[in-house]
Amino acid sequence: MHRSGTVNIFDELTWRGLVHQISDPDGLRTYLKAPGQTMYCGFDPTAESLHIGNLVPLLSLVRMLRAGHKPIFLMGGATGLIGDPSGKDKERELSNLDAVQGRAANIKAQIEAFVERNTGQKPCVVNNYDWVKEMSAIELLRDVGKYFTVNWMLGKESVRGRIERDEVGISYTEFSYMILQGYDFYHLYKEMGCRLQIGGGDQWGNITAGCELIRKKAAGEAYALTFPLITTASGKKFGKSEKGAIFMSAAMTSPYAFYQFWINTEDADVIRFLKYYTFLDEERINEIAAEHEAAPHLRGAQKILAAETTIMVHGEDELNKVLAATDALFGKGDLKSIDPATLAAALESAPSKSYTGELPDLPQVLVDLGLCPSKGQARKDIQAGAISLNGDKVADTAHMLAGPDFLGGALAVLRKGKKNYGLVRLG
RNA sequence: GGUGGGGUUCCCGAGUGGCCAAAGGGAACAGACUGUAAAUCUGUCGGCGUCAGCCUUCGGAGGUUCAAAUCCUCCCCCCACCA
Q1: A317-359: per-residue pLDDT in tens?
Q2: A132-150: per-residue pLDDT in tens?
Q3: Residue A125 host element (H or E)
Q4: N or C: which end of chain A has fewer CB within 10 A?
Q5: Where exactly does CATH 1.10.240.10 map onto chain A?
Q6: Which parts of A307-410 are beta strand (E)?
């Protein structure tokens, strides 16, 4: 099979392993055959930034755009106020309007920057608050609610999961979520001719709710496509590092940390992730897979994955900085032989702390840098041999930082474990 | 509104007057081995600490007691069934 811009995007998604469920495979394939088709995916503003768990849907819309289609990026300004029960095992706290709209604005800017970087085109971003806010309770109940039977809604996984378990319940608010999302799809169908909604594996119920509404209310045909739930080979949930979610915002997750997340991908996942998270084509990925199999210890596939995703999200300039930092910290050279200015630049995104006058003892410094949660834990870490100063292990739990510890008289590099750095500045 | 069952340290979950900073599991962090991988083994896992000990925690507020996560009172929240 050939892969090029003219190939049906549906086949490409299939090859990438991104297709989990589809409502009508033949119909959808036909729909996507000619360019210029419309599809959408929603992003609820539940945080200030998108995170890498949003990357598959986001990238898929971008792939659509690159294939000549007309994807719509929907901000869930309204649905974010309600709370999606899908995949959640308990009721969530409501967020207030200002918070949700503020996040929606941030995420909209983020999506625009991302799409422009990767396609050179401006994305079409809409906010469902714009049409849902106009709707009255009577309209919602008569014009939308009438098309859904509770019996059918109760059959949905997101609802059933909450009802069948004894300890949790579901409020009417969250129960209604699928109706709102269904209405979004209907609205976009009517206004923009949108006939496909894509989403994560847990979105099947919500998406098909929209298909139902379009069929009953407009006698139209619409398609649903969901992605598989992405897990790692060792069974962990994808997308969380030790520190929490990996965000796309450089302010929330530094480009360095972002790159490090990807470079740490385990062998068993790396080829699959190249398919999910890069634009590299089949031929190129097969090549990488062969090289990786021949020499896994070189981590070639991980390096490509990390570089591709970092460029995609943060751009090439940031990648170059990150590579310089990575080389300084994980390269062969002795930390002490590196020029302090280079070192400081490499550790730009690492926590740092400046002291003037009296220096506290090492455990306190580790706490100040956020490398250790408490002084007690810091002492334990030192005893366990986890702490190094300028590349040398520290043995003394009460070590006092002093002049000779500072490279170039101004800079000391602390490390906990293999990957956690902190910078101490003098003056 | 009524009846019953619950709310324990990041999560699950044991604990029904002192032996409880609280079993066990998971997650997490670290060490060893490696390839900034996985698996495995080991250690740590409330805070402070001169490592003796001190302080704070078991939904919230009070109370009983020499002593409470455990008993009592009131309140808040969750779940089930009934209305």
Answers
A1: 999 988 988 888 887 667 777 777 778 888 877 888 888 877 8
A2: 999 999 999 999 999 999 8
A3: strand A124-127
A4: N
A5: 240-331
A6: 352-355, 387-389, 392-393
Protein residues with beta carbon less than 7 Å from any atom of strand B: A 91, 163, 166-169, 233-234, 236, 241-242, 260, 263-268, 296-297, 299, 302, 326, 330, 363, 367, 373-377, 379-381, 384-386, 397-398, 416-420
Q: What is the pLDDT of residues A285-295, one digit of tens each?
A: 999 999 999 99
Strand B, nucleotides < 7 Å from a protein CB: these are 27-32, 34-39, 43-51, 78-80
Give burial (CB, 10 Å; 0-12/13-18/19+) of A186: buried
The set of residues, in sequence order, having a beta carbon less than 8 Å from that of A83 and lying 6+ positions away, is: A91, A92, A94, A173, A174, A177
Q: Which one-letter amino acid corresponds to residue A400? A: M
- Which residues of chain A does CATH 3.10.290.10 include? 340-426
Minimum CA–C1' distance nucleotide for A268: B38
The model's confidence at residue A241, banded by pLDDT at 50, 70 and 90, is low
User: What pLDDT, on a 0 to 100 scale, did the predictor assign at position A145?
Assistant: 93
**DSSP-derived 3-state class of residue A303:** helix
Q: How far is the CA of A92 from the C1' of B60 (A)?
A: 22
pLDDT exceeds 80 at position A166: no
The CATH 3.40.50.620 domain(s) of chain A lie at 9-226
Q: Calculate the average pLDDT of chain A.
A: 89
- Would you identify the CATH topology of the domain A340-426? 3.10.290
The CATH topology of domain A240-331 is Tyrosyl-Transfer RNA Synthetase (1.10.240)
pLDDT at A239 over 80: no
CATH homologous superfamily for the domain A9-226: HUPs (3.40.50.620)
**CA distances (Å), A285 to each of A235, A271, A295, in order?**
24, 7, 15
Nearest nucleotide to A259 (CA to C1') is B36
